[in-house]
């Protein structure tokens, strides 16, 4: 019997486990004040990437069975600040159903007066309301809400034990990185849809085709494809994006973020006709 739903999830899960093991090593062995802070800073970017994989897991669970999925979600909770089923409620059955309607979208980028939020305003506000909105969506999905609440209590209890054992290391190695990762997760979503008002999936998302970015985020850059078929495994998104390439406006692309692009990170770019054709050609090749 296969443990994983998809064999391509094996290496990512191994890497998540290694990152969590490193966190625990620092937590249990660091005896000075500065190393946990240094570790916090070093972990911002890799844990930001792991946030994308937590997102993928909430769409398509990586294991076939409940117990390993819940255990993985505890690890994700410590690494990303997003606990079990928080993404599922807020994002999968919330944002994905409502992202074309800014009055309902759980990650809405519009203010109540209809104007567009700034980058920092959006990031701080949506990070603050992420868990309340997940709970609100959960009222319509009692079974998922129950898992969200039970696993949330477990996550808090485990974090409490870590604080009881060593409050300073728990603060720097776990709690603060969890908060930073949650903020980074929300901040990244600002560049996905802001300013796009349409009823077409192919016109409602910005996309990133940078190879390094998509390697580290599990193809999150193929965002129009992800919204067109959000139950698709992350490994299949490039092919779907290629099939949609001719329908996606060439202006709906962005630069990758740091550390792939240090200047103009997240800036809008326009693909040339030859670049669009190259993407479409990938789709035709993949289908033959």
Automatic annotation (TrEMBL):
<keyword id="KW-0812">Transmembrane</keyword>
<dbReference type="InterPro" id="IPR005804">
    <property type="entry name" value="FA_desaturase_dom"/>
</dbReference>
<protein>
    <submittedName>
        <fullName>Fatty acid desaturase</fullName>
    </submittedName>
</protein>
<feature type="domain" description="Fatty acid desaturase">
    <location>
        <begin position="32"/>
        <end position="250"/>
    </location>
</feature>
<feature type="transmembrane region" description="Helical">
    <location>
        <begin position="74"/>
        <end position="93"/>
    </location>
</feature>
<dbReference type="Pfam" id="PF00487">
    <property type="entry name" value="FA_desaturase"/>
</dbReference>
<feature type="transmembrane region" description="Helical">
    <location>
        <begin position="144"/>
        <end position="164"/>
    </location>
</feature>
<feature type="transmembrane region" description="Helical">
    <location>
        <begin position="171"/>
        <end position="190"/>
    </location>
</feature>
<keyword id="KW-1133">Transmembrane helix</keyword>
<feature type="transmembrane region" description="Helical">
    <location>
        <begin position="12"/>
        <end position="30"/>
    </location>
</feature>
<keyword id="KW-0472">Membrane</keyword>
